[in-house]
Amino acid sequence: MRQQTLAEALAERAVLLDGGLSNQLEAQGCDLSDELWSARLLADAPGQIEAAHAAYLRAGAEVLITASYQASFAGFARRGVSRAEAARLLRESVALARRAAGDRAWVAASVGPYGAVLADGSEYRGRYGLSVAELTAFHRPRVAALVEAEPDVLALETVPDATEAEALLRAVEGTDLPVWLSYTVAGGRTRAGQDLADAFAVAAGHPQVIAAGVNCCAPQDVQAAVEVAHAVTGLPAVAYPNSGETWDAPSATWHGGSAYAPEPADGWRKAGARLIGGCCRVGPEQIAALGRRLRAGGD
């Protein structure tokens, strides 16, 4: 665990996040076709997850995000995993990242959206038909299990709408852990079609939120979103888009070419981004290039 907190570091400079865990696992030869996605490997091949984290650490990443994005009690139960074992696997996701990180990187425990658990692309639509209270009840046990493993921060990520953001922030209350909140957006709005200023207002003034922004969106959607996030919350912004390719849930395939490049990060940082990295289809080589860009640009 690093001596300086992540929040303290963000007050001084930009911090490099890792990239997509799933694409690195696939590059290592892992099969992620199961509905649990990378979370399945917490039980079946934990060494592969630790190796993927290590690949990003070698690329210069200063924050490693755990393999718990698609992990849930409900999802594990469908595979016949007991509740006690599911809680252990959630904790193990933090332990694996911690072993890879040592004292060289912070560990962010991923708390993915409810839609990720459905494994049908719902996180890119939102509007599940559940209330804030129902979503809070879903997320709170997952958060509690992850907190037990003592990550440095909770990553409330790939959130498609403000309703779930409110639920997630309720779910983390009382944990005393810092969090970042990142929406997935498209065309200047949340995936559920909400105004970004209204969406980021949910995080404004929340005592645990140390950064707010976007992830798993097209790179071209980052700049405007970061500007809004920073202006509304007054906090450092977080920005880790995917490659710009399009995910087709029915066929479980990506389409199109990559639009990810390190150069736009200059503008993101000027707009207030301090946690900068990549998401799906962004690998260690691209994170290494981004790190060189951030170092060259100064703060």
Automatic annotation (TrEMBL):
Instruction: Give the matching Pfam families.
Output: S-methyl_trans (PF02574)
Q: Which SUPFAM superfamilies match?
A: Homocysteine S-methyltransferase
Which cofactors are named for this entry? Zn(2+)
Cite the entry's keywords alphabetically.
Metal-binding, Methyltransferase, Transferase, Zinc
One example of the protein's molecular function in GO is:
S-adenosylmethionine-homocysteine S-methyltransferase activity
Residues involved in Zn(2+) binding:
216, 279-280
Enzyme Commission no: 2.1.1.10
Q: Give GO terms for biological process.
A: methionine biosynthetic process; methylation; S-methylmethionine cycle
Q: Which residues form the Hcy-binding domain?
A: 3-294
Q: What is this protein called?
A: Homocysteine S-methyltransferase
